[in-house]
Design a protein that fits this description.
heterodimer, A: 779 residues, Neutral Protease, domain 2, Serine Threonine Protein Phosphatase 5, Tetratricopeptide repeat, B: 356 residues, alpha/beta, Rossmann fold, 2 domains, three-stranded antiparallel beta sheet, 11 helices, 12% strand, disordered N terminus
Chain lengths: 779, 356
């Protein structure tokens, strides 16, 4: 945009490019009401036509205005309404140059920047306006919206909002915009009581000011939908005022989307774009929604439509880039193939570079989870479960929420879940893909079984509980910062658990809430039985809130539950929490001693650490330091015993487990070595050593089919020892009596390493078998 | 009943015989190996360097005659002695001979001069560059495993060291580029002179010369490339296992690393086999026969580009089967196997694998 320069983050820079290249569109586009900010009669006449849904007449009106000899600012508004944002920008620039002390021009220019998603620039313009007119409510509300959309400081935003909403002398339109913003916030946070307080005030302000109530009606529809109330009448009211008002459906569509009711959200957005085909944001949300429902073709169509209409939108730009990955880099595997019914039970969408490594393991774990969750939650999947695994974390995030830079690992949309591949994280990091998959699969069942009505904290609590109870590496795994929060009494009352996810008040509160949710479920399972967790889920499905469900299912109210849960936490962790600082000191000392190569001190600190807190088995556990110190002291017995305890308690760090498997093998206990190695698959399936060892063990256990799988994965990982990998595959095929395939891989091995004695021996064996068969079949 | 060799195998053997007749005699180029153990500075490093030297000496003994293997360690490893040795070597070596130089120890780099730390005055990059330039013969090999050794490579080749954030060895770099970059085969334990911590690379490189895991083409020999790949991989695994950021990134420059062997893993085994077979003519003949077959396989590999794929595979398969049969007979003769089939009785399809 012309002369205004600023540093842009990478993805916004793409949007900026879009801005420069966007064609000078010149037809009527979705816009926001003026709410009285301008009083030019010519412009207002056009606006009235537009907001009555008389789009053809409005377009003609704006066109006439844009070519008139009126003020630069009004001509800018007209060409903006017609969709030529570049021209509007140029006219605003000229207007501001001509009238540098006109705050209103800067405010409207700022609104244009907001419209093009350049919130920092918009925020600056609103503040420039405030420097000219410190009391301008329009500048304040603009700044508040720009700051909110640009993830600004919440305190500042609230301050700006309050200064407008609570100011009876502020223009009604500005106050209404403030109230609408508060209303949106209340609905986003499920604060319906607060919304009920805001709504009458907003209506009163709108009526007294003679302002459009279209958005209010749409928000009332959204609120009713969220509260499982009839909502159509609110939509009808909006459409009675403006039959072409797409937001009548798009706003409820948004709230359906953020409450994970994707089917309804899609229906609403479909209606929105039918009413207002140039509602580019609605097309974008609809496209994303179709992708979440695994309707890829429709999803791509709507995202492309949105991008073509509004190339300024960074989410559209990011999604367009992600679609290239989606279409070009990913491949789909269906199971069973062909399906036994109308659709496959499971579809995997994997990156082509990784599918040979991941496919079988993702399938195995997903199918195991489907059996487990189906039985536990008394629910059978009615659609294919779709798993998408992304090697690039940012692709996964853009696919999930449209914008990068968020630290999620997996996201579930009904029957579809997307997650990071193990390769999305550096080797050695604590990312456990198997647990992530298990966690997300729990959501598939709890969300679908409850018809998407399960509270956020409840489904997260179940997912964490299932990680600990039934996941690939069971055992409670709680990060250190959560213990810290626990010791500081930061756990929430059960009735307020959603606040921890939706309105976190301190940095770690979301992760603390995950863990508290898991502990709550663990407590219910231990004290009341796991069935009660499931029973309560179905109460939610039936629209009953927690304060109804809990007394009926558990026989206690939420206050009593909180008391019992606190006692449970005291029993489970009281001693540990009291000694937490000492334990943390030992844990730190153990690793520091390792760094200093002071093995004896590492052993001493590590031993104190594991005695004080034997259940802590994260990768920074004292077990890991202790085992490493024993290893350096050549004390293999104690190293083995330490790692064995670590594993038995749920430790999952791949390198220590590979060492443990070696220890079991050295002690002749191949069964346990097997179990350990299978656990490593869920943490680090890209370890070549793992697949070689597993393949050998399967072969030794007379299971050549699984040995073959492991060796094929080994080869897919492109190991340095290609000859060995090919020979291993050939050996497995030979054990499966598939001589042709064995020969194919064997010749690869021999071509690489002709003097490889083991390969030579297998060639001799196969050749003799072939000769024997030929002799036997000879007449 | 008399069994005859199947026609295809007879043809393959005939082709092999012709090929052998046509093979020109290979000139016996000599390999001169010089091993210089630097100062440890601390007992644990001194022990490490000693252990590395012992492994490299053992490996080198499998590659060359005792009069072509030179070791400098302790107080004897002075600049004067080392440079005097190379001056002598320059007089002995012939065109076609090759030199392998191991620098096992710490290095330092002050921004201008690389120094390999030995008793008294250190060896500088200028000394070492001069040594390489003055030695007669073909492509020589020098490895410096220690700290700051990347600076030595930079100074010898004149090519700038990789930046700290650059990959040490670009994947699939064309051989022509690698050759143009250095007329010598050079390995350094670090990517430049800024990586100054004591390195892990040396001990893994020495290990590589003695372990079968490093022998990726299973020819019982460890090439420079194989030793480098093994050590480089182990260094990466070491830092990952320790949960530390890697403070060293090894590099390999020059062409022909896969063809330059540093160790024969089966040399001792062969000596033992021959000693055990002493007085047992049949066993001696079998061992010699297998050695011949291995040599023929190696020779066939060298001629690969002059053969069609089908011919190559047919000849290779024939030789491999014969070698396998002989190995089986050796094993059986030692009582390690139960059954010997005395004669090949195989149908080998021309131009492809069995059963294809």
């Amino acid at each position: 945009m012309g002369s205004r320069r600023r540093k842009l983050p990478r993805l916004l820079r793409i949007a900026r490019l879009g801005l420069l290249l966007a064609p000078a569109a010149a037809d009527l586009q979705a816009r926001e009401p003026l709410y009285g900010v301008l009083d030019d009669p010519g412009l207002l006449a056009c606006e009235q036509q537009y907001w009555r849904g008389e789009t053809a007449a409005a377009e003609g009106c704006y066109r006439s205005l844009s070519g008139s000899a009126g003020s630069l600012g009004i001509r800018a508004e007209a060409v903006w309404a017609l969709g030529d944002l570049q021209a509007a920008n140029g006219l605003f620039q000229q207007a501001v140059n001509a009238e540098p002390q006109n705050a209103l021009l800067r405010i409207r220019w700022g609104e244009l920047f907001r419209r093009t998603y350049q919130y920092d620039e918009a925020y600056k313009l609103f503040n420039e306006a405030l420097a000219i007119d410190a009391d301008s409510a329009w500048a304040k509300i603009g700044a508040a919206e720009a700051a909110a959309e640009g993830n600004g400081d919440p305190e500042e935003i609230n301050g700006l909002l309050a200064s407008v909403v609570e100011n009876g002398l502020a223009p009604a339109g500005a106050r209404l915009r403030g109230l609408l913003m508060l209303l949106h916030n209340a609905l986003r946070d499920d604060e319906f009581d607060k919304a009920d307080e805001i709504l009458p005030e907003a209506r009163r302000v709108a009526e007294e000011g003679g302002l459009s109530q279209l958005e209010l009606h749409a928000l009332e529809a959204a609120k009713a939908f969220m509260q499982l109330q009839p909502y159509q009448r609110f939509v009808d009211r909006a459409l009675a005022e403006n039959p072409a008002y797409g937001d009548a459906w798009a706003i409820p569509g948004y709230y359906a989307m953020i409450t994970r009711r994707y089917r309804e959200s899609g229906d609403f957005y479909e209606k929105a774009v039918a009413l207002e085909p140039k509602h580019w944001q609605a097309h974008l949300e609809l496209g994303q929604n179709y992708l979440r429902l695994n309707q890829v073709t429709k999803g791509v169509d709507h995202i492309e439509t949105s991008y073509a209409g509004d190339a300024f939108n960074p989410t559209a730009t990011n999604l367009m880039r992600m679609l290239q990955v989606f279409v070009n880099d990913m491949e789909v595997f269906n199971f069973p193939d062909p399906p036994e019914g109308p659709f496959p039970a499971l579809s995997l969408r994997l990156d082509k570079k990784e599918s040979d490594v991941l496919k079988d393991y993702v399938r195995e774990l997903t199918e195991a989870s489907m059996r487990h969750y189906g039985e536990r939650y008394r629910f059978t999947a009615r659609e294919p479960v779709v798993i998408e695994v992304y090697p690039n974390h940012e692709d996964f995030i853009v696919r999930s929420i449209g914008m990068p830079g968020v630290g999620l690992l997996g996201v579930t949309f009904g029957y579809l879940l997307a997650m990071d591949s193990p390769t999305a994280h550096p080797r050695g990091e604590a990312y456990h893909w198997g647990t992530t998959l298990w966690h997300e699969m729990a959501h598939v069942y709890t969300v679908e079984a409850s018809n998407h009505l399960v509270p956020r904290w409840y489904t997260e609590g179940i997912a964490v509980f299932e990680e600990w109870r039934s996941g690939p590496t069971p055992g409670r795994k709680i990060p250190l910062n959560v213990y810290q929060a626990m010791s500081e009494g930061k756990f929430l009352p059960v009735a307020s658990m959603d606040d921890g996810f939706m309105r976190p008040s301190y940095e770690d509160q979301v992760i603390v809430s995950y863990m508290q949710g898991g502990l709550i479920m663990d407590f219910i399972a231990l004290e009341y039985g796991v069935e009660k967790i499931v029973d309560m889920l179905y109460y939610f499905r039936d629209g009953k809130p927690l304060d109804v469900a809990m007394p009926e299912v558990l026989g206690i109210d939420t206050d009593t539950f909180d008391k019992q849960f606190k006692e449970f936490i005291d029993i489970e962790y009281g001693k540990l929490l009291r000694n937490l600082p000492g334990w943390q000191a030992d844990q730190k000392a153990a690793f520091e001693a390792l760094e200093a190569e002071d093995w004896q001190s590492a052993v001493a600190a590590g031993q104190r650490g594991v005695v004080a807190f034997p259940d802590y088995v994260e990768p920074d556990s004292p077990y890991v330091a202790l085992a490493r110190a024993y290893s350096r002291l050549d004390d293999t017995d104690n190293e083995f015993r330490t790692l064995e305890t670590f594993w038995q308690k749920g430790g999952y760090a791949p390198r220590p487990l590979l060492t443990l498997a070696e220890g079991y093998t050295a002690r002749g206990n191949s069964e346990q070595a097997f179990e350990v190695l299978k656990d490593v698959v869920w943490a680090d399936p890209f370890s070549q050593e793992l697949h070689l060892k597993l393949g050998d063990l399967y072969l030794a256990h007379d299971d050549p089919a699984l040995a073959l799988r492991e060796y094929q994965v080994l080869l897919a990982l492109n190991p340095p020892d290609q000859a060995q990998a090919n020979l291993k595959i050939a050996t497995a095929f030979d054990a499966l009596s598939d001589r042709d395939s064995a020969m194919q891989y064997l010749m690869q091995a021999i071509d690489i390493a002709p003097t490889y004695r083991e390969a030579q021996a297998l060639l001799l064996k196969l050749s003799r078998s072939t000769a024997a068969d030929a002799a036997a079949s000879a007449p | 009943m008399t069994k005859t060799r199947p026609t295809a195998l007879r043809h393959a053997c005939a082709a092999l015989a012709l090929a052998l007749l046509a093979t020109p005699p290979v000139a016996q180029a000599a390999l001169y190996i010089s091993i210089i153990e630097g100062l440890g500075g601390m007992p644990e490093y001194a022990a490490d360097f000693r252990s590395m030297r012992e492994k490299v000496v053992a490996a080198s003994e499998s590659m060359t005659d005792a009069d072509k293997l030179f070791t400098f360690s302790g107080e004897a490893a002075t600049r004067t002695a080392v440079l005097g040795h190379f001056a002598d070597l320059g007089k002995k070596m012939q065109a076609g001979d090759r030199a392998a130089i191991y620098l096992l120890g710490h290095g330092s780099f002050d921004g201008e001069t690389y120094k390999f730390n030995i008793p008294g005055p250190d060896l500088t990059h200028g000394d070492l560059k001069d040594v390489l330039e003055k030695l007669p013969g073909g492509t020589h090999f020098l490895v410096s495993t220690g700290s700051a050794s990347g600076a030595l490579v930079e100074q010898i080749t004149g090519a700038p060291a990789p930046r700290d954030d650059a990959p040490a060895r670009p994947a699939a770099r064309p051989a022509a580029d690698a050759a143009a970059e250095s007329k010598y085969l050079l390995i350094a334990g670090t990517r430049n002179g800024n990586e100054r911590n004591a390195t892990q690379f040396g001990r893994f490189f020495a290990d590589a010369l003695t372990v079968t895991e490093a022998d990726l083409n299973k020819n019982n020999s460890i090439s420079i490339q194989e030793a480098f790949d093994y050590a480089d991989g182990r260094v990466s695994a070491y830092f990952q296992d320790e949960g530390k950021l890697a403070t060293e990134h090894a590099q390999l420059r020059g062409d022909g690393a896969a063809q330059f062997n540093l160790s024969r893993l089966n040399a001792l085994q062969l000596k033992t086999e021959i000693a055990e077979a002493s007085g047992d003519d049949a066993m001696t003949r079998l061992i010699e026969r297998r050695q011949q077959l291995d040599a023929q396989i190696e020779e066939l590999q060298l001629r690969r580009n002059s053969l069609s794929s089908a011919d190559y595979l047919a000849q290779l398969q024939s030789l491999v089967l014969q070698a396998a049969e002989v190995s089986e007979q050796i094993d059986a003769a030692r009582g390690e196997r139960d059954v010997i089939k005395p004669e090949l009785d195989l149908e080998i399809p021309a131009g492809g694998g069995l059963g294809q």
